[in-house]
Amino acid sequence: MSRRRFLASMSAAAVGAALAGVERRFAFADDNLGDYIDLASFRPRPAVRIRSAVVRLAPPYWLGWPGTSYDLEGHRREYAAQFATAAKGVGVRLEEELKPLESDAAVEAFAQQIAAEKPHAALITLQHIGAWGWADRIARAGVPIVIFAPIGMAFTGHVAEISRRPGVHVISSLEVAAVEQAMRMIRAKRQLEETRLMIVAGADRRETVLERLGTKVCYVPRNLLHELFARMPVTDEVRAVAADMRRGARRIVEPTEQDTLNAARSYITAKRLLRDEGCNALTTDCLGMVGAKVVPTPPCMAASIFQDGGVTYGCEADLFAAMGLLLTSYLFDRPGFMNDPVPETVQNLLVAAHCTCGTRLNGFARPREPYILRNHSESKLGVSMEVLWREGQPVTLVSFQGANALLLDTGAVVGNVNTPPAGGCRTSVEIRLDQIEDARDVAGFHQVVSYGDHRRDVEAFCQMYDIRVVNSPERAPKPVGRLPEGGVR
Amino acid sequence: MNRSDRRLIAFAGVILLAALAPLVNAAGDDKASSNLTIGAPGLPPSSVDANGDLHEDWGVIGLRIDQPQGTPVTGQTLQMSPTEGIARCVTTSIAVDPIAVTSTVYRAPIWPAGVDVLLARVENRSDSEVQTRLRVTLPQEVSLGERVAVAGGRAVLALPKEPQPTRRERSWGAVGGDVPMPGWGRPEGECDPAFRNIRAGMGGVPIIYRFAVAPGAKRTVVLGFCESHHSQAGQRPLVIYVEGAPKAEIDPIAAWGRHQPGCLRLDASDVNGDGRLQVVVAPAPGAPDRNPILNVIWIFSPDVYVDTAEVRRGKMSSVAEHYVDVGGEKDQSLYEGGALIYDLTLPARASSEFMFLAACPGASAPNAETTAWTPESLRQAADDVWSDWAGREARAARAR
After folding, report:
1. Which residues of B touch A7 (CB under 8 A)?
2. CATH assignment of the domain containing B249
């Protein structure tokens, strides 16, 4: 039999059988279940390379902006130092052109160089108002471009078009922090590309890649998680995690000590499965497992610890909700809160409600917000989180609509809802929306809410990577009426 | 284990046969049994036969050289995957001197269910300019749009932007790119039965129809809508461009309500004199739901008195020049199906490469107009997933 004939004889049925055997091949040993796994090791730390250059007309200048009085070299040094510090903090490598680009030839050479090298982005600092043509040339090199134009380098007419172009982010400002956020944006995209998001649901195993975002979506059978949980012993780490969560709580209402131990086992189990599968984040069919009574606790407390550690743990195997959590985590270095949107029609508020929420809402390295340990309200099982959000805090809501569009809204926290008297979920945050006339019109489901008004930062990310931004309707719809037949509005 | 470790393992796991298979006659027998399975981890497989034809659950797609004529010579190269029996990539060469066509087929595991990539490279191996005709064979029942082929309401093939195939047009039909959705509408009250069906331009694709008329002719166009998804106005406002008529905007919910059929009358004319009357339904700028819908089209002679209430009730369909049950059984594509013909002129020693994306089992082809996937990113996706798969197996083996 020829090699080709042999290969051809492998029918689709045989291939199916081969794939059916994958679970056996992927089976991991049971020993060392209690090994310590560093949660931080799951957060991707990709190499991010940004080429940077100063672009300006050749000095000295006489009249024209930035003006003869502008300390060209002083500001160049000052910004370079600030950018270097920011790059170190964000964790990106900034490769600076030592000499400013001051001629057509120099700009062309730089543009061609980055087009060939394909760094993850280029950062251009403009030092003359007449250099926008050169910025435009570099922006057409096919590499994401951040253009920093300190005040004095642009009129509105210079930026109106280029600042809205996909693949470009223009910062016309003295806010150097915006450049740091731009670096975080480039890093976030790389982190999304390096993330393997494990979806624990169903019975099949497969892996696919998301358009534009590049995230790998790894489906693994649900039974792996609850069977691993059943074998997970109460280790020193389990006891320490449970004790820490109990100690940190403002109050413990329903959960027993055993409940917190189980919740901590759930946390260790998730880490172990994540490591075994070589993934960086997860979302699980948690309600399905609770409904089938294959676990004694939902993973709500575990998910909260993951979120605080910068590692996404989403609910209900909702892929795009988990993508929203990943975006918030990578873009702003703080946990997001995946929730169900509930209308409060008397005060015209949105209540964002779910049974798990990170506590380090101000940032991974910042102190926790107060939380109360509760049970999971729908099942009266285990440990869930009631996190108390700070009133007055601006918030941002994001919700991926597939990989190519993102729903974006903003508002401010006005309070927290107690359960009881309310039903629903333990963390219930009241939000007054700032560009939506009627809270009933908030679009989407399982939106991800995070501290801070990040509207422009999210818009910048989406523009850079060509993701369409949509918003909930600003105006309430007109009552349904009737037009005459053939009527045209 | 880091990423490069995984790649190394994957590389070691790949058996590159790279051996040119014995030359196979294009009309070779025993084709079904000699098919090679292609796929990606966890996704249902497809197959490629000795001619390089890709066999999907919706039909077979193949490349042929119609011009120059001659007996084609075929060869095949395989790249096997670490999962036994699955080819990662099958490359088939068909040559009719001086033209050589190389098709490369592989599964790109894009979310949600993958896509089969068919890269066609047409090469002129002579020292003079050559005209060639390449035929992409497709099932007769596949309906062809400008960038998409549809079968049974499913987008099965995304077509390249360039080159454009030579197409034979019918007297009327949908340009394509949208998706027929029979039974989507739930019209209430007495109305034409066509209100039950729609086409939807998923992802913002406009719904476009063209009708043959005498150059410069005038017609009365009536469009029928029935919104059966949204309950609130403002969700799916539509913009209507009918040739010769002012642009119109309609929000079916605001105008008539949910499940309520309604009609919009416009006076049309073939203003560009090309003998085609064009009807376009597109999403209004800023529409939260960017998937335009259309249920019915009636085209009337201008000397027919049109009562839109009667049209809505289906009482005037018999006197219409065209009555189109959009997305229904008798709806049709503007272009005849069966095969795509590409007439190419290739300079000496030049080549041209283009990409088709074929729906694999259980999946649809991506929207060619809006997709961000490129040949490079699709290949990268396949490489990444195979690497991960191999790495995971190796890690499990080590743990055992």
Report:
1. 36, 78, 80, 85, 87
2. 2.60.120.260
